[in-house]
């Protein structure tokens, strides 16, 4: 901080300089002036924060100096040091914002107190200015977000326009007289890879750049033609609301594409609606712009502007993925990457034969693929689905090349990788299934004489009863209960050859506690009772 001492008597100036420990108050420079005229020159040049002044001086006195200070330098804090105990002078000091009125001869304690009060006020005002600056910065940062959310809300709730009409006119020049509008969508989902990599994870900066470029073009000329903003109800859209000179909207969008290419090195597809009532037609205008983008032909490599067509031509007979699904399934089950590649190439060959492919068509194919895929997973793995098969399907993502254009080649590679991975997991699962099923078979062969049940086997191997039952039958072509019975009957046949063993003993030795039930099961399996079998097969 700086201070200035204004007094026509040098000994008074020197006294003040000696009485004050300036460094303790954070004052690094002390200026001097012998009258109000010189003081004004020094204040304008050096901007001291604290002014000590006498009231009676030649040329321009203290009262005149204070009047000048209030008008031209209100930030300065004035302390009057005067030899006149005059109420009118004191009243003047109070009127023009003086900090204190100290009488000569100068009392050091009074001087220090007045200076401390002035320094405290300066620091308080600096702190308040700092807080105000931070609040202003915060408001400026939040202001675009506020308008983005407000304008986004109008798309879904046009009835909210009336509550913000005056603010919209003041902020964007959107007059209450506007009766029609158009909505355009800048879709960032087909940006080039180079541009996506340039921004990386900083998508906020990408949206900021796109809206800034757009708003600069919309503000060209004598009046603003519209406003661009990020649409908060979507992750990848910048919207432009046109409300002036609607007939030139498409031409402005063409210039905008060139501007984006010039600044960012790449451009994007834009969909635009027809004229719709404002504000009631905002939702319909947005829907039209979205449909214009969804119905665009993805086989077109260059970025373009797509205007909504209320009477689009009839689409050709759609290609159905389900017609090729069985070939995909068999290729996966074959375990052959060559067969998988062949099945995929047959499908993509048919895709390449299409004259037009829209996002809607791709999403339909993707849905059909996921339905088929989930059915295959259930058939192949049952409840033991691999981790990639737990969901209903992946989110649809456009396979794009480096220029941001739809690529059948990339889609082909994705399908081959996905199906090959599924086939590999199937083979691994089958090998694991075979191993555990044979382990179960060996377990049965060693424990056939015990009261063995499917539940007991399931508990022992930590598998579900359903899984064991299904996989066992697939491997051995017989129910597990029949397999157990078969082993028991075979063992019983051998034991019955020993004439010294009673039938009840044989039954107990092969796992049957009830002799009559054993005889019934044996006769059903062999065609004769245990006694008859023993008689026929005696040596």
TrEMBL record:
One of its GO terms (biological process) is phosphorelay signal transduction system. Signal peptide: none annotated. GO terms for molecular function: DNA-binding transcription factor activity; sequence-specific DNA binding. Residues 2-119 form the Response regulatory domain. The modification 4-aspartylphosphate is found at residue 54. Residues 438-536 form the HTH araC/xylS-type domain. Residues 108-135 form a coiled coil. It holds the Pfam family HTH_18. It comes from the Bacteria. InterPro entries: CheY-like_superfamily (IPR011006), Homeodomain-like_sf (IPR009057), HTH_AraC (IPR018060), HTH_AraC-typ_CS (IPR018062), Sig_transdc_resp-reg_receiver (IPR001789), Tscrpt_reg_AraC-type_HTH (IPR020449). SMART domains: HTH_ARAC, REC. Keywords: Coiled coil, DNA-binding, Phosphoprotein, Transcription, Transcription regulation. PANTHER family: ARAC-FAMILY TRANSCRIPTIONAL REGULATOR (PTHR43280), REGULATORY PROTEIN POCR (PTHR43280:SF10). This is Two-component system response regulator.
